[in-house]
């Protein structure tokens, strides 16, 4: 057991998730004051001593950019308050889709965020289902990369679906789908898509047979839901009995809620890494990732191995 004190703080937009994490962790949230100026500038102030302690700062860095800036300011505050270690708990790692230079003069946003977090003073990163695994290599500090599969696989099993098939909505998620399928003893199919531009699909083709199968689509995030809804339509046209979708991060921008409600998807399961408007459609089900984060945070604090938490 660690004798070092631990402290939990949260950004404003992730407070609901952080409160659940704190409950499972068995500790109250730390006190923090947000001072705001009339021009929109804000200043987070830790309202208690953290000297010599292990600080966990919880906050997903989805847009707007203020969420990332808030996390950076909190890290800086903890560093200047003489915290011994500072773990940035980012259930959703923003800008992760910018993980490589895929066209001339393009930024690598995920690397820039890594640099900013490290420069601010973070000594450890904890996140879940990065858009690209290689983002872990952007850091020179430890990264605990958790997977929602530890939550989703149990849910899929609870459905007791016959002729289960796992599907990936694109080629990039083929490895993820294969890993799910190997744990569930299911087959794998892949939807191959071609885009003209971001969030706009030109064509989609199915690789594999889904006739008479109950299909579960697996992805790391749902943005506009265009890909998932198109994939569900093709799967049903090819004879699938039912189509569900599971994604770690419910970004749900644009017409996502409308697209899901009008789609052939029976249900869409996401975690609460990003706040979800579950009242906009009856098809969305939210499973909390708070118990997983709380358990891993506790294990990190007590210097225990967390390898048992990596199913995929």
UniProtKB/TrEMBL annotation:
Q: Which keywords accompany this UniProt record?
A: ATP-binding, Kinase, Magnesium, Metal-binding, Nucleotide biosynthesis, Nucleotide-binding, Transferase
**Record-linked Pfam families:** Pribosyl_synth, Pribosyltran_N
CDD domains from the entry? PRTases_typeI (cd06223)
Query: What does the entry list under GO cellular component?
Result: cytoplasm; ribose phosphate diphosphokinase complex
Show the InterPro entries listed in the entry.
Answer: PRib_PP_synth_CS, Pribosyltran_N, PRTase-like, PRTase_dom, Rib-P_diPkinase
GO molecular function (one) = kinase activity
Task: Name the Gene3D superfamilies for this protein.
Answer: 3.40.50.2020
Boundaries of each Ribose-phosphate pyrophosphokinase N-terminal domain copy? 8-121
Q: Which GO terms describe its biological process?
A: 5-phosphoribose 1-diphosphate biosynthetic process; purine nucleotide biosynthetic process; ribonucleoside monophosphate biosynthetic process
Q: Which NCBIfam families match?
A: PRK01259.1, ribP_PPkin
Q: What is this protein called?
A: ribose-phosphate diphosphokinase
Native source organism of the sequence: Frigoriflavimonas asaccharolytica
């Amino acid at each position: 057991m660690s004798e070092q004190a631990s402290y939990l703080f949260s950004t404003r937009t992730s407070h609901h998730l952080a409160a659940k994490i704190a409950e499972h962790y068995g500790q109250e949230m730390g006190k923090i004051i947000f001072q705001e100026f009339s021009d929109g500038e804000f200043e987070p102030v830790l309202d208690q001593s953290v000297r010599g302690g292990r600080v966990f700062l919880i906050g997903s860095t989805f847009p707007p950019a203020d969420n990332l800036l808030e996390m950076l300011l909190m890290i800086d505050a903890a560093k200047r308050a003489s915290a011994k270690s500072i773990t940035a708990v980012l259930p959703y790692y923003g800008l992760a889709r910018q993980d490589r230079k895929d066209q001339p003069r393009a930024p690598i946003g995920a690397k820039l965020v890594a640099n900013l977090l490290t420069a601010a003073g973070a000594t450890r990163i904890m996140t879940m289902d990065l858009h690209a695994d290689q983002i872990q290599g952007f850091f020179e500090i430890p990264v605990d990369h958790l997977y929602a599969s530890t939550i989703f696989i149990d849910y899929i099993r609870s459905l007791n679906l016959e002729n289960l098939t796992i599907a990936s909505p694109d080629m990039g998620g083929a490895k993820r789908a294969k890993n799910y399928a190997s744990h569930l003893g299911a087959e794998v199919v892949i939807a191959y898509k071609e885009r003209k531009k971001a969030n706009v699909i030109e064509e989609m083709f199915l690789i594999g047979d889904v006739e008479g199968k109950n299909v579960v689509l697996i992805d790391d995030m749902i943005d506009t839901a265009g890909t998932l809804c198109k994939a569900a339509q093709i799967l049903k046209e090819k004879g699938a009995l039912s189509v569900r979708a599971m994604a770690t991060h419910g970004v749900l921008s644009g017409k996502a809620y409308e697209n899901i409600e009008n789609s052939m998807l029976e249900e869409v399961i996401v975690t609460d890494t990003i706040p979800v408007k579950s009242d906009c459609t009856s098809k969305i089900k939210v499973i909390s990732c708070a118990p997983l984060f709380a358990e891993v945070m506790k294990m990190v604090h007590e210097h225990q191995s967390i390898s048992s938490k990596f199913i995929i």
